[in-house]
Amino acid sequence: MGHVPFVIAVHGGAGTMSPDPAIEAPYHFALKAALAAGAAVLESGGAALDAVQAAVVSLEDCPLFNAGRGSVYTADARHEMDAAVMDGQRLAAGAVACVHGVRNPVALARSVLEASGHVLMVGEGAQCFAQQMGLAMEPEAYFHTDERLAELRRVQQQRKPAGMQAPPQESGHFGTVGAVALDAGGHLAAAVSTGGLTAKRAGRVGDSAVIGAGIYANDLSCAVVATGTGEHFIRTAAAHDVHARMAYRGQTLQEAAPDVVFGELLRIGGRGGLIAVDARGEVSMPFNTSGMYRGVQRQGEAACTAIFQDEAPGR
Ligand code: ASP
After folding, report:
1. CA of 212 to the centre of ligand 1 (A)
2. Separation of 291 CA from ligand 1 center, angstroms?
3. Atom of ligand 1 nearest to the CA of 233
């Protein structure tokens, strides 16, 4: 395949949010930094898989987002993180669930892809593997933010009258981070990382660690990562559904991605969105919430970032 113009897109979660320029500025800044980290890889001829990993590492290291450093708290006030990567050329994938203390869960997911012989590793075994691979570990304090702990207490207070059956964080802000990219060689890749949902039960695994639900990539169609109420994305195999609509039904990306976000997913109560790029460099970023932190960078163009429905880019 000849040289094609690269494109990278990132998201920092969807949810209920209202415009406030003072609060928004640092999000735009962080999204641009993530795009720059990924674009630097692509600019030097690097692979889409390395680019999406670099972008997600940048977002994991930023406490604004619910991934890595800024991960939300479980019901028992701990952190359990999920992450995954997928390479559209090899259909190779790596994912981890319920890990803690790992500075960059996306790097661990990449190690699972490259070096474990498996696709999905969880809990203590995944953590031992992180240590064997020499990945950076951090103490609990690194992952603490006052805002996230206050959010946990607030959610627990609200859920008391409804009892423990109330779904965690039904309407709120989902701050999972993700990236999708098309590289100069025409290959697609996706990466995602999350702390999950505030007040989730210990041991709960969300869509971000489930290949086909919160993430999918195939050079024949597109690369996709999702954010939102993970259980619904698992139940609808949302990310794979975008691929399947393109591959089997002949839909374009601009048809398939919104159909998934506003179709069955929404009908069963799923809230959130996804970002996707196809093999021709088209980008789609539909969401069924009031906002989604997102951004796109195309080769030779300035990066654009947006939060609300009526803003560009790439919807
Ligand atoms: N989808 C993630 C999960 O359910 C949450 C998020 O998008 O913030 O774990």
Report:
1. 14
2. 15
3. 1
> Do 32 and 309 contact (CB within 8 A), yes or no?
no
pLDDT digits (tens, 9 = 90+) for 221-232: 999 999 999 999
Q: Which residues line ligand 1 (CB under 6 A)?
A: 13, 66, 174-176, 194, 196-197, 206-208, 214, 227-228, 230, 272
Q: How far apart are CA 203 and CA 99, in angstroms?
A: 10
Does the annotation mark 176 as catalytic?
yes
Domain of 266 in residue numbering reads as 7-17+31-308
Structural domains of the chain, count: 1
Q: pLDDT tens digit string along 245-274?
A: 999 999 999 999 999 999 999 999 999 999
Domain containing residue 167: CATH number:
3.60.20.30
Q: What is the pTM of this model?
A: 0.95
Q: 215 C-alpha to center of ligand 1: Å? A: 12
| β-pair type (222-228, 272-278) | antiparallel
Per-residue model confidence (pLDDT) at position 163: 53
Q: Active-site residue among 16, 74, 145, 176?
A: 176
Backbone angles phi, psi at 125, to 5 degrees: -60, -40
Does residue 164 have a pLDDT over 90?
A: no
